[in-house]
Write a structure and sequence with these properties.
14-stranded antiparallel barrel; 4 helices; three-stranded antiparallel β-sheet; mainly beta; 63% strand; 390 residues; Porin
Length: 390
């Protein structure tokens, strides 16, 4: 689709123009298995993606080592369209997640966010695209036979690209830079097993994970620090998630079939962010900004069906999930959406110590009715990962 200037866009609409992704819309689910469950993983994670969802689950791994790499689509903040209808989102592909875990320890790279904002700059507005990555170091251990605790330290890097100013297409590459900071996570997991004599006992889990907002952010670019108020640029939100899962054996014979249901609830709190745009007054164009610390409620539900022959040489897993994310603390005119809904499917195949997983998510981003030239937008993402366990 053809790119166009914000000035041309603003002339067409009578009220407000904007170029801000509604921050949590820029989230892409880490981990192919979790993606197939729509992110319902805080109490149902059995691989190295526990480093993100619940580091306490690393204590369940035992003596097994897990090396995983995931490649797939992520939400990208790209403005495109025509004068009457715009698109704020697209998808791009990259390595989303790479991790290694062993005996309760884990180290992982994640790329879960990309944001787009317009922010104030010398009486004008400037577009900023922020690409978020982090390196996580985590540890989980068993406190008792049923209770596990975990924690992690996160090294955060946010690459900011200043794309163009509001009044022109001029780029501001001299203000590009990287913000670095840190975060942490603390988590707990309860794991109870019933009918222990069965090959696949009934399993009930309950998990909780607190992930801090980004701390101590600093820019490596003096030009960036001078150009904008960095305190109002997007960064990782504070997150409190909790959930339950239940594993039930359905068939126990030459082929075992097991069902696993999971529910995940999450509260996300961003810091105070700037959302810029423009409005027409007396046939003249004026930049405007509004400020909000967005808060979101997220709920996700997932279902897994594991099929394993008695030989345990290979196994097949089918997954499906659904999630909804709602902006809960305001509906200002410069945030383009109020949240999103998603449905996902996935599959996994294990053969000896190799695990292959694929997943696809269909996301419907729900338009803010106060925005006149942005309607619900649909994006489809897919992902694949390879794991080696020994």
């Amino acid at each position: 689709m053809k790119k166009f200037s914000l000035t041309a866009l603003a002339v067409v609409i009578a009220t407000t123009c904007f170029d801000s992704v509604a921050v949590e819309d820029g989230f892409s689910v880490p981990g192919t298995r979790a993606m197939g469950l729509s992110g319902a993983a805080v109490a149902n994670v059995v691989d190295s993606s526990a480093i993100w969802y619940n580091p306490a689950a690393l204590g369940l791994v035992g003596d097994y080592a897990d090396l995983t790499v995931e490649y797939g689509d992520f939400i990208s903040a790209d403005l495109a369209g025509n004068s009457s209808e715009i698109s704020l989102y697209s998808t791009k592909q990259d390595i989303k997640y790479a991790a290694f875990s062993y005996k309760g320890f884990g180290i992982a790279y994640f790329k879960p966010y990309q944001w787009g904002q317009q922010v104030s700059h010398n009486g004008d507005l400037i577009r900023v695209k922020s690409d978020y990555k982090e390196l996580k170091l985590s540890y989980g251990f068993g406190l008792t036979d049923n209770i596990y605790l975990g924690a992690g330290i996160d090294l955060i890097n946010i690459d900011d690209e200043f794309v163009q100013s509001f009044t022109s297409l001029a780029e501001h590459a001299d203000a590009n830079g990287a913000r670095t900071g840190y975060g942490y996570a603390v988590a707990a997991l309860g794991n109870w097993r019933f009918l222990e004599t069965s090959k696949h006992p009934v399993t009930i889990k309950a998990g909780v994970n607190f992930r801090s907002s980004t701390q101590g952010l600093e820019s490596d670019s003096k030009e960036q620090a001078d150009a904008v108020n960095q305190d109002t640029l997007a960064s990782r939100p504070e997150s409190m998630s909790y959930g339950v899962s239940a594993g039930l054996p359905l068939i126990q014979s030459d082929i075992s079939v097991n069902l696993n249901f999971s529910a995940h609830f999450e509260k996300l709190k961003y810091g105070l962010l700037e959302f810029g745009g423009a409005e027409i007054r007396n046939n003249s164009l004026y930049p405007v900004s509004e400020y909000l610390a967005p808060e979101y409620d997220k709920q996700a539900f997932g279902l897994e069906v594991d099929v394993t022959p008695s030989s345990d040489v290979f196994g097949l897993t089918l997954r499906a999930g659904s999630s909804k994310t709602d902006l809960t603390n305001g509906n200002i005119r410069l945030i383009p959406s109020n949240g999103y809904e998603s449905q996902s499917v996935g599959a996994g195949l294990s053969f000896s110590n190799i695990l292959l997983d694929v997943a696809m998510e269909k996301r419907n981003i729900l338009a803010n009715p106060l925005i006149t030239n942005f309607s619900d937008e649909e994006e489809t993402m897919s992902s694949a990962s390879v794991s080696i366990v020994w």
